[in-house]
Design goal:
Elements: H1 17-24, H2 29-36, E1 63-64, H3 75-82, E2 86-87, H4 89-97, H5 99-102, H6 116-127, H7 185-191, E3 206-208, H8 209-219, H9 221-224, H10 260-270, H11 281-294, E4 304-306, H12 330-333
Antiparallel strand pairs: 1-2, 3-4
Helix pairs in contact: 1-4, 1-6, 2-6, 4-6, 8-11, 10-11
Length: 373
């Protein structure tokens, strides 16, 4: 498995923590704010920040590990704080590079930040919310000689800046409150990004399994697990083959989903959690390729998915989905009213909980199976 090839990637995380901490003071807090979006699903920082899945991070620099009141820390974190661990630039760099290696047993399942600049920038950003921490000194930036007029093909899912901004659009004169106006062409383009099963709507781009593996580890594994097995109650993405006829089927991309276009479209418009639409089109292709690899739909680590070969890929369960033919039923085809007589007189009663569908908790003994009748 591809993951096994990367066991040693974080081996130097702690050894380089000091140099990374030194870089933090020379890095860009504004850039760190963007990096923090990867953390925002679980952590809050700033005015009014409260504990979420993870503790709030105000005044984290200089704070004793496990020191936020009201948050339930893991035992190793509490013991580390009792042993004198203080969150400073150096220790944060080591922890954020690979949390589970830095502290075995930590509740934080985030895979870690691989790029040194990202580590230094996010620490600089957190320092702006920590009393007594030295403010980050931004590196001098060369003056830009020209503005970007367009995004490279396949490198961004964000539409180009509109010629007419929404705030400059003509205000309608109809009605009392003047609500509603014709949507700008650029606004429609920004929203019209759906991808159909036949590939219509796919953007230009490409990405390999190996590239997707790197992105998945950094952006997705915190919720979906290193191999798509799912963390806690987060969705499972891989496996489940031959389980659809069982009492508790595992509905994954490889076992249940019919079309690859759904994978690409969903990832593109909603992921990663808390930072939707931040992935480039190439990154989405790479992630989609990696999800195929996790489900053994492709087996070559160098496989490259692109807009040109996308329709050649078929998911295993596609044939088990059928066209909705309700319009062929008699009362639809003949345009007749549906039968509404001779109905069962007794009220409907629940004879089974939806535990099998993972909608409600398991039923108590004796309540079990059946249907609504």
């Amino acid at each position: 498995m591809l993951k096994s090839l990367k066991v040693g990637l974080f081996a130097g995380a702690l050894a380089t923590a000091t140099s990374l901490a030194g870089n933090a003071l020379a890095q860009d807090a504004a850039a760190g704010e963007k990096v923090f979006k990867k953390c925002a699903a679980c952590h809050a920082v700033g005015e009014g920040a409260k504990n979420k899945v993870g503790p709030q991070l105000n005044n984290v620099i200089g704070r004793t590990a496990g020191g936020v009141e009201g948050y339930k820390y893991s035992k190793p974190m509490i013991e580390a704080g009792g042993g004198g661990l203080i969150w400073e630039a150096e220790t944060l760099a080591g922890y954020l590079a690979n949390p589970r290696k830095f502290m075995k047993g930590t509740k934080m399942s985030f895979a870690g930040l691989k790029k040194e600049d990202d580590l230094a920038n996010v620490i600089a950003y957190l320092a702006t919310f920590s009393e007594g921490a030295e403010p980050a000194a931004e590196e001098p930036k060369a003056e830009e000689t020209e503005q970007k007029s367009e995004t490279p093909s396949g490198n961004s899912s964000v539409a180009a800046a509109p010629a007419t901004l929404a705030k400059d659009a003509e205000v309608p004169s109809h009605g009392i409150f003047h609500l509603g106006r014709v949507a700008l062409e650029e606004e429609i383009t920004a929203w019209d990004i759906d991808v159909r099963p036949d590939g219509a709507g796919l953007p230009k781009g490409k990405g390999t399994v190996a590239q997707g593996d790197e992105i998945f580890a950094e952006q997705c594994a915190v919720c979906h697990g290193d191999f798509g097995e799912g963390k806690d109650r987060w969705p499972v993405l891989a496996g489940g083959q031959d389980t659809l006829t069982k009492e508790r089927p595992e509905k994954t991309v490889g076992s249940y989903w019919p079309y690859l276009s759904t994978v690409y479209d969903y990832v593109r418009r909603t992921m990663p959690f808390g930072n939707a639409r931040s992935l480039s089109d190439d990154e989405v292709y790479a992630l989609t390729a990696y999800i195929l690899y996790l489900n053994d739909v492709v087996t070559d680590e160098e496989f490259e998915l692109s807009d040109s070969n996308f329709n050649e890929v078929r998911l295993p369960n596609e044939a088990n989905f059928i066209v909705d033919n309700r319009t062929e039923e008699t009362h639809y085809a003949d345009k007749k009213e549906p039968c509404m007589k001779d109905c069962i007189a007794e009220p409907a009663k629940v004879t089974m909980r939806a535990a099998v569908l993972d909608v409600t908790p398991d039923s108590e003994e004796g309540e079990g199976g059946g249907s609504i009748e």
